[in-house]
Amino acid sequence: EQNLFKIGAKIIERLEENNYEGYFVGGAVRDYTLGRAVSDVDITTNALPDEIEALFDKTIDVGKEHGTIIVLMDGLPFEVTTYRVEGTYTDHRRPDNVFFTQHLKEDLSRRDFTINAMAMTADMDLYDPYNGLKDLKSRLINTVGTASERFDEDALRMLRAVRFMSQLNFKLTSETEKAVAEHAGMLRYIAVERITAELRKLYRGINVQSAKDVIAKTDMLSYLPFFQSIDKEQYIQSRALSLEQEAVVHIYRDSALQKHLGTLKLANRQKTVIKESLKAIEALENGMNTKLLAYRYEEDILIGVNDIIKLNALVSADLEVHLEAAIDARPQLALKNRSELAADGNTLMTALNAKGGPWLRECLNAIEEEVLLGNLINNEKEIVNWVNLHVKNEDGNI
Ligand code: ATP
Ligand code: MG
């Protein structure tokens, strides 16, 4: 990562050799200054997009009209963006137009929070006209300029504010929090996908609770998809380690919420995680055997369920223990999936000289269960013997 800045510095040096300016900027400067891991390093410059392209061998145009070019240096991508200021905002989510400028300070002024509005030279010297370092040291999220104006321009910034609270374990300045409370309703202008993306980052942070408290206190909660119908107290009190887990806790408590899940526009995998988790809790409560639980549900699902049932005391202590036993049982299961079974439909039809039908599925399910429970050895001969013993009538019913 130290390396990322070293490689990025080559880009800045090339810009400077050609009489342009170049600085590290944004999240990378913030995270570096905080001593956090940096995964991508952005650069800002007074060179225009065409000029950036002309200076470097390998570039990718990712949004020239907004001033952004990706420069590949030593095989790594760096976003290099021309200093820019933004025009008026009429839709509360994006500027009507952007203008390039020759002044770094103007570029920094359009950025959301002071901690995100610091620039750094190739030699790692800070340029910090909006006192980001001071807020960083006080662990505060503070808008550049007047908070209410900045949230009025772009309502997503309110969610970014609470997301950074959670990620960095920072607080909002009182002016920022007050402005969020006043503008919460403007979240309705923001695309659901962008809201969900911010929420997912928030839930992966280190102080989720502080962010949730502010979401509830400022009433942003009432304007968030899915969450808007959740009781404030319930929301504050629930504990979850991901957005999916948060949804599971609330749907578990009130199944009527299930029908609002679609409003979050989650990816299929995330929806599956939520549904499977709810099914796993139900199975647990219905007393499903530990080995069967372990077999039917993915490890990630069971571990996630284990987290939330403990954090929220959703089930009895007995069931908590039962679930842990299921997680522990997973590595030693006699089967990992159906394809490992030593017999399939054809084996059974041949052995019994019977035609296919619904019985076949039932029979395979029963065999699978017996093998998992350790009552039947998983080889073809044993399975055929078992079937011969257990099949009750000529229809093949067991
Ligand atoms: P991370 O990448 O960890 O999510 P980041 O601060 O790098 O955090 P990005 O979304 O990558 O966030 O944006 C890069 C920079 O662009 C920010 O640091 C900030 O200066 C500016 N920025 C991003 N979104 C906005 C916005 N909605 N309003 C104003 N400035 C913004
Ligand atoms: Mg970033």
SSE arrangement:
Elements: H1 2-17, E1 22-25, H2 27-34, E2 42-45, H3 49-55, E3 59-63, E4 68-73, E5 76-82, E6 84-86, E7 98-100, H4 104-109, E8 119-120, E9 126-127, H5 132-138, E10 140-141, H6 147-153, H7 156-168, E11 171-172, H8 174-183, H9 192-203, H10 208-217, H11 232-237, H12 243-253, H13 268-285, H14 290-296, H15 299-311, H16 317-329, H17 345-352, H18 358-373, H19 380-390
Parallel strand pairs: 2-5, 10-11
Antiparallel strand pairs: 1-2, 1-8, 3-4, 4-5, 6-7, 8-9
Helix pairs in contact: 6-8, 7-9, 7-10, 12-13, 12-15, 13-15, 14-16, 15-16, 17-19
Bound molecules: adenosine-5'-triphosphate (ATP) and magnesium ion.
The site of adenosine-5'-triphosphate (ATP) has 9 residues, from α7.
**Fraction of residues in H or I helices:** 40-55%
Main β-sheet description: 7 strands, mixed
Continuous helix count: 19
What would CATH call the homologous superfamily of the largest domain? Beta Polymerase, domain 2
Specify the overall morphology: elongated
The strand order across the widest sheet is 3-4-5-2-1-8-9
Low-confidence stretches: none
Number of strands: 11
For the record, the CATH class of the largest domain is Alpha Beta
Hetero compounds = adenosine-5'-triphosphate, magnesium ion
How does CATH name the architecture of the largest domain?
2-Layer Sandwich
Q: How many domains make up the coordinates?
A: 3
The run of helices and strands is HEHEHEEEEEHEEHEHHEHHHHHHHHHHHH
Mean pLDDT: 95
Using only C-alpha atoms, the radius of gyration works out to 28 Å
Q: Structural class, from secondary structure content?
A: alpha+beta
Estimated share of beta-strand residues: 5-15%
CATH fold call of the largest domain: Beta Polymerase, domain 2
Q: What is the first-to-last residue Cα distance?
A: 63 Å
Family: Belongs to the tRNA nucleotidyltransferase/poly(A) polymerase family.
GO molecular function: CCA tRNA nucleotidyltransferase activity
Cofactor: Mg(2+)
Enzyme class: transferase
